[in-house]
Amino acid sequence: MFLTKKITIQTACCFYMLFFSITIFAQQPADFVNPFIGTSNYGATFPGPIAPRGMASISPFNVAGSQNALEKDSQWLSNPYVNENTFLTGFSQVNISGVGCPDLGVILVMPTTGMVETDHLKYGCTYSNEIAKAAYYSVQLDKYNVKGEFTASKRVGVSKFTFPKGQSNVLLNLGLGLTNEEGAMVKIVSSTEIEGMRSVGSFCYNSPEDAYPVYFVAKFSKPANKFGVWKKPSKYKGLEAQWMTYNGKTRMMDNTIKTVVGDSIGTYFSYQFDKEESVEVKIGVSYVSIENARENLEKETGNKSFDAVYKETYNEWNEELSKILVEGGSKDDKTIFYTALYHTLIHPNTLNDVNGEYPEIKRKKIGKTLGTRYTVFSLWDTYRNMHPLTSLVYPKQQSDMIKSMLDMYDENGWLPKWELNSTETFTMVGDPASIVIVDACLKGIQDFDIYKAYYAMLKGADQIENNPLRPGLKDYIEKGYLTTNDRGPVSTTQEYNASDYAISLLAKALGKKEDYKRFTNRSLSYRKLYDKELQLLRPRTANGKWYEPFDPVAGANFQENVGFIEGNAWQYAFMVPHDIVGLKKLMGGDKAFSDQLQKVFDSKQFDMANEPDIAYPYLFNYVKGEEWKAQETVKKLVKEYFQNKPKGLPGNDDTGTMSAWLVYSMIGIYPISPGDPIYAITAPMFHRITIKLDPAYYKKESIVIERQINNDGKIISIELNGKPLNSFFISHEDFVNGKTLKVIQN
Amino acid sequence: MFLTKKITIQTACCFYMLFFSITIFAQQPADFVNPFIGTSNYGATFPGPIAPRGMASISPFNVAGSQNALEKDSQWLSNPYVNENTFLTGFSQVNISGVGCPDLGVILVMPTTGMVETDHLKYGCTYSNEIAKAAYYSVQLDKYNVKGEFTASKRVGVSKFTFPKGQSNVLLNLGLGLTNEEGAMVKIVSSTEIEGMRSVGSFCYNSPEDAYPVYFVAKFSKPANKFGVWKKPSKYKGLEAQWMTYNGKTRMMDNTIKTVVGDSIGTYFSYQFDKEESVEVKIGVSYVSIENARENLEKETGNKSFDAVYKETYNEWNEELSKILVEGGSKDDKTIFYTALYHTLIHPNTLNDVNGEYPEIKRKKIGKTLGTRYTVFSLWDTYRNMHPLTSLVYPKQQSDMIKSMLDMYDENGWLPKWELNSTETFTMVGDPASIVIVDACLKGIQDFDIYKAYYAMLKGADQIENNPLRPGLKDYIEKGYLTTNDRGPVSTTQEYNASDYAISLLAKALGKKEDYKRFTNRSLSYRKLYDKELQLLRPRTANGKWYEPFDPVAGANFQENVGFIEGNAWQYAFMVPHDIVGLKKLMGGDKAFSDQLQKVFDSKQFDMANEPDIAYPYLFNYVKGEEWKAQETVKKLVKEYFQNKPKGLPGNDDTGTMSAWLVYSMIGIYPISPGDPIYAITAPMFHRITIKLDPAYYKKESIVIERQINNDGKIISIELNGKPLNSFFISHEDFVNGKTLKVIQN
């Protein structure tokens, strides 16, 4: 009897393994993620692991050391990792993805062997055999023959180091970092635990007074044979320096459990191994307190192994990415698509701890949420497509993001502009929060306090004095535009127009007729900056005259210029998506409009790497008969700028904005006028695309976009649920309540 | 009926008040304390409040600012307050009294008015109306018209600021400090509470790796209208500095509860008063943790008012000081006497928190005591008289000090040498812990593990390699002396001799005959350094020859010299108190000895300001018929060097050593040979002195020293319990078991 039983179990086992193997080898959406995409060409993404919208993440840190192609202090460098670089000095535990300013990239863990060396320029080394996947990164450190593997849960980074025989060390460097802020505190709690904090902030060299702490707790799977803290103090000056033989020298403080603070401090945990051995290091982080960091670590990873954490986070990624299933297309197509979708799921990210606590804006107190408090709102970028995408595919997340924005309004008196870990960086211009909220609201995400949101928008739009969101508002309201006395007067006017248009849409929906009229009018004021001769928008001085001399080309490639923020007159000329009909009229009709638009591309003024003009290709849809130009241009741009390689993003990912552009462009629709629930249609790049819809927000389970190709030519017909659509636009309502959107190409 | 009752109560009230008034106005020992004594002439005491052997203390901090006569960075200055200085920049909450190296003097509280100014050179000001008493200090800040009053419990400093109408601020400066260490952390918990830590250490510019944190919690009696943190970051260098408009500038961070770290940080609590108002600030400290600092604050001062805390600590002082009651003498005599006794009750001080926790030596872990863990053992100074005095008057404290020393041995493997807040500073030379322990033990304080103590002493005395207590031990054991290859070879040999003598006494008491013989022999080895021609001790080189050239006068006033530590050949010539008989023989008998001793004084080589020769005056007792010289010299020295004024100490108080010298000298006995329980007798300076004895250690309740004067001349007779003593020495046993020691002068 016994024997029989045993055989049965073995058989079952085999079946299970066979089944398991099949599951493993079938390529899941998460398997197509290539985190190296965007790690070159200033994409500013990082290849290390992160959970969807995770607070913690691990990035190899290879931007310190003159051996590198791009060294962090040699230029305005905003990422902890550059693919071309060769000299690695650790693995940072909190990172921002795809932004244009340096910050975070701190709490650097580094495995070494032999004697403890604390100078990163000395302990850093070259590396090889990098592998990066969703939720996983591994690398071999050449100098030490150490393999590092990394994964992460939402608030905990997990590192696994496999050391050769001999003395091995795990350094925790709290001095080195991508951020320009300095200052840290650390205390070794025991031979398996460290706690501390690191100052970060002054993002984009702004608001240094808002610099803030990130707290952490690190737990080691094996007790150190020896541990300690190092500190390199600042050099003492004056008479007393002559008595200090130790002046400015690094101090090694062995086996101590005291609190140490300083700008340049770190810890070392040393082991003596008589064979190859692995050490796992879990680092929980929190923006509230050390206690919360410890709780985050315990609750999320407790006694879980590296592999268990990896599997959980991999599954999370797979679940999120499976919300859009694509069929057809090459492996590279799928890779750039799912990597882009992955990049849109990094920011905004979770700010609250597992217990719900988070620092309120300005850190005046600790708030508590029952849902998710989101942070990292690069709204000038993301209002254009990232948030609209989130509303469509992840409406619950979008809802929580809006609730987070409204909480910020409660805490701070203003909706966010460029919020980062509960600091308002006031980077960029415009008042884009309104657009994000209206866009989601009009798409049916309405489980938040809409009236509060509405009045919050009105405050930002109407309060003339001391308004941090809309500087220059007095001119804008009185004259209809900002003048050259203000910053980027033309583009900022356009941004305010876009926001006012969104507000007008909500006013209309709420039955606020007066406001509707008022904001509709305000949204068209850009027209006063239209120069008929140039067929471009151009700045006016305070006395209403055109600013002279005016060079429409000046301002490309992020150069400072009088009229525009991060762009030139060409790159902003068409950025009035809510009034393309009006713009066409100004320009003299369809043809003039189309010619001028084409000129942007022909004269190489189109900049794929920045937001103002990224919707341009879709604007051809506004000219009957020229929609093929949109299709052709989008296809060309995707091919040119988005590739399955580190340089495969056109520039800064802008917290997923470039990636969202790609996602939309590959599924064949684009939210052409943010705030307005409408999509422009182009040719999808997969045979079939299934978007799963969240039943809490949408009636249908999913919507399918199908492509029918004859010769990969122009779109000849678009059908919704089998019936001709007769338009290259589709409302969000029609789209999500449809069943199949079929695009037939010649 | 009602009316009658009321009157009765009022009468009772009046009686009570009358009684109370009498109590107040009768001068108690504590009323004679003048904390200004020693605040000039490098006495290095501070005038602010402290409880007996308290961990916390408050000192006005007036050593920062070039307006001052003595500025802390302009020279080797070791005190937070100098009486001649005029520019005050706050009130430090932890301080060391009477030491020769700068440390602590941190956590500076400063009241200001008007706009918040964070630069101490700008907010500092002159002051007036200083009042200093036991447990109380007050001062008027001229610039702000603010009165500051200060008191302290053992672990909590309490400040009371009386502000005029208008904006008032309480600054907490964590950058400025007397210590040369830098680095602090702070977090404002609420509008009435602050928590944080400050790094201190590298005492005497030694052992920077042992720098350590002092944690604190501050509670305010009134919630601030506005609060914040300031930070002056270090200046950023390199390319990025050009984008930092804020580079190196002080940042004001309003109403934030985030953790801030840095070398130059502080907090401000601001108030808007519409009339004169007071704010009380309680600051609890701990060397273990912020939590413990908070518990110390709560348990010791809770809801107590400033006045209640003051009264408690005043009473504690009075109780301690009343252990010796003096009658007769002028007010100045009583003042210098009780102030000296007060100064002997500051260090060693309490290290453990109210819950018993303290950092163990080297801060490898947190220990816990049921008694008191003492710290600040300046043993090279204090073994000579401070500890003997404590054994006599405060034997329970002495017992706990010995237990603390033995705990340090457990923690660190070595008895302490110069222990400071659980760091071993290894300042000065010798192995004085043995002497302290033996002295107490042979005086009957034996409630500790004597055998452990004995073996701890042997380890220090015998372990040749890696012995941090006795460098040069190999030479010492082999040759009998240290050579010019070692530090201060002559004086260090003498110190080892003194320790070995103490060990021999304990060996004898424990019946360890071999050890007794061995250490007795070792204790006499200084004789090999005796130069018959010079009648002085002088250094020998490694090959045994006299070191040439040799200047017996070199080394006075703390100048470095080859043979001696902090002294010259004259100041060390007689520092063999355990072998004066032998020394006399070396010198050629009583007369030669007496002549040579007199020469020290006549040639002005005697240094009252440092320890090696402070017992010299009493050595005349060893020459029959010349005891009057001891009496005369002591009287002269007391008059010359100890006065009721800031300059009233001869130099550094050396954690109470100079003060203990004065206490002994004024009561007419002196522990002439530390370790050996014997006193030399001179003329007491009061009519009657009653020393209360602790019944836990001594049989008698008290011992009385009486003086009978005819013409204030030589002592003509000494009587113990009415019988002639026939000696100018008395054993500790006879003394404490006597009733009255009567000294009759001509």
From TrEMBL, chains A, B:
- Domain Glycosyl hydrolase family 92 N-terminal spans what residues? 32-286
What EC number is given for this enzyme?
Answer: 3.2.1.-
Q: Which residues form the Glycosyl hydrolase family domain?
A: 292-742
Cross-referenced InterPro entries: 6-hairpin_glycosidase_sf, GH-type_carb-bd, GH92_a_mannosidase_put, GH92_N, Glyco_hydro_92, PNGase
Q: Which cofactor does it need?
A: Ca(2+)
Q: GO CC terms on record?
A: cytosol
* One Gene Ontology term from the biological process aspect of the record: carbohydrate metabolic process
SUPFAM superfamilies named among the record's database cross-references:
Six-hairpin glycosidases
Its keywords, alphabetically, are:
Calcium, Glycosidase, Hydrolase, Signal
Q: What domain of life is recorded for the organism?
A: Bacteria
Say yes or no: keyword Signal present.
yes
UniProt GO molecular function: carbohydrate binding; hydrolase activity, acting on glycosyl bonds; peptide-N4-(N-acetyl-beta-glucosaminyl)asparagine amidase activity
Q: Where is the signal peptide?
A: 1-26
Q: How does it assemble?
A: Monomer.
Q: What is this protein called?
A: GH92 family glycosyl hydrolase
| Annotated organism of origin | Flavobacterium flavipigmentatum
